[in-house]
Amino acid sequence: MSAQAPSAVLLVRATKFLPNPSTAADNAFQADAPAGESPEELSARALAEMDLVADTLRSVGVRVHVFDDEDHTRPDSVFPNNWISTHAGGMVGVFPMYASNRRHERRSDVLELLKSHFRVQTIVDYSGLEPDGIFLEGTGAMVLDHVSRVAYTAVSHRADTHVLERFCTDFNYEPMAFEAVDSGGVPVYHTNVMACVGTDVALIALDMIPDAHRREQVRERLTVNGRTVVELTEEQVREFAGNAVELCGRHADGRRRYVMAMSARAHRSLRPDQVATIEQSCEIVSVDIPTIELAGGSVRCMIAGVHLDRRPVDLDPDLTEAVRAINEDHPVTLDGRLVDAEG
């Protein structure tokens, strides 16, 4: 199994959704909600899209853990990848967030599920840096190559290089930091909107790296072990083509199935030759999420991959029969969280 493509993911089902006013200033991908639409209507549409993402991932054999969030003060909680990351060897990172109204997205129940369902050895929490105005927003700020142990990072006030160095020391990654801007000179707010690293293919807008020497260093590092680079245009990045993630699912007969999850909007922006290159190593699975994309993030932002070894879980005996009775493709609620039928 590829170390790059996790077979389990965390999603947050946010019942109250709104493009976050506190992030609009530096997130060039964010858009206003449609005029005349009530908050309830907006949230209902977004919730349906969240459920569609979860159902689509389950349909290709990815294990999905979903957490409900009914807190109306967490408009971006649908994007958990910004505050948590998981790593082989039982390591978990918890990260400092730029927007103050995002900091209470960090949830102890998520960490408890990880500890109960997976082998967690160490949790490294950098959130104490927030009062100092120092931030590193998880796998939004960093696009991680888990195989070659490289952390590709577009430098911004959401991705401080000092914290990046600390993370790389603690988690054994090589920092690969670079400046990245759009055609108007606006810095890219999160690396994962312009780049995605898979096992055998990477999607990246290299032309958004203005320093030609650094651009070639990034290209060389991505390809050194034979990985193919699909170069994205800035226009495709604006359609969220870079905001994709490779996952490991299962066919009905149990065979492994590698997929590249992205939005339908992102998929439509790709040229036929780019699609063909991606599908040489994994199949594209796309979901239409136009409401959630108003918040400036897409499918990859919604997914926190679980790169941890599973552990056997002893369920409450009173719940055992209920769990056995459900279909494997449908979750059951246990103590306020959704758990797949395998436990």
From TrEMBL:
Q: Does the keyword Membrane apply?
A: no
Check the record and name the InterPro entries matching this protein: Amdntrnsf_FN0238
- Per UniProt, what is one GO molecular function of this protein? hydrolase activity
What keywords are assigned to this protein?
Hydrolase
Matches recorded under NCBIfam families: citrull_CtlX
The molecule here is called Citrulline utilization hydrolase CtlX
Organism of derivation: Nocardioides aestuarii
Q: Which gene encodes it?
A: ctlX
